[in-house]
Design brief:
This protein has 155 residues and is mainly α. It is built from seven helices and no strands. Helix 1 runs antiparallel to helix 2, helix 2 (24-36) packs antiparallel against helix 3 (40-54) and helix 6 (103-115) packs parallel to helix 7 (137-146).
Length: 155
């Protein structure tokens, strides 16, 4: 997300959304940017759009309309995103688990990501949703193993 500049990232996603529908990963990243900016209502609305556009095709666990879910329900939406299985990347799942406050599940997903050579793992030092884990010894060891850096990509 623009190396710690969520405002720039959010503006870029808004620019892209003006010309085409955002893909699932872009919507997730946009929600992360809004959350990093303290814009919880916008993050919530973006997660709703993600689930409505890319949620389970069979309608199971269908997401209620925005007016039916309080802004405090953002965590519920993150859980729905996980349950819908929208992201196969364990690195992305780790970010969602950490956003929900489940550090152990996040670290377990990161360990899985490194073991499975998840291509997204090279960005773990750049992902704002993983920032609170960066001082954890397990995270530092994983970061070192993949050679990640704060600008994304490899050292």
């Amino acid at each position: 997300l623009y190396a710690g500049q969520p405002e720039r990232a959010a503006a870029e996603f808004e620019r892209i959304a003006a010309s085409r529908a955002l893909r699932a990963e872009e919507l997730r990243s946009q929600a992360v940017a809004y959350r990093a900016m303290g814009e919880e209502a916008k993050a919530h609305a973006t997660l709703l759009r993600l689930l409505q556009a890319h949620g389970p095709a069979d309608g199971a666990g269908a997401t209620p309309p925005a007016s039916a879910v309080p802004a405090s329900g953002t965590e519920t939406l993150y859980r729905e995103v996980l349950e819908a299985g929208l992201f196969r990347s364990p690195t992305i799942s780790a970010g969602i688990h950490n956003a929900l406050g489940d550090r152990e599940a996040a670290l377990a997903q990161l360990e899985r990501a490194v073991a499975e050579r998840d291509p997204d793992a090279i960005y773990l030092d750049a992902m704002p949703e993983l920032a609170s884990l960066r001082t954890h010894p397990r995270f530092r060891a994983l970061s070192k193993r993949v050679g990640a850096n704060p600008r994304g990509g490899l050292h």
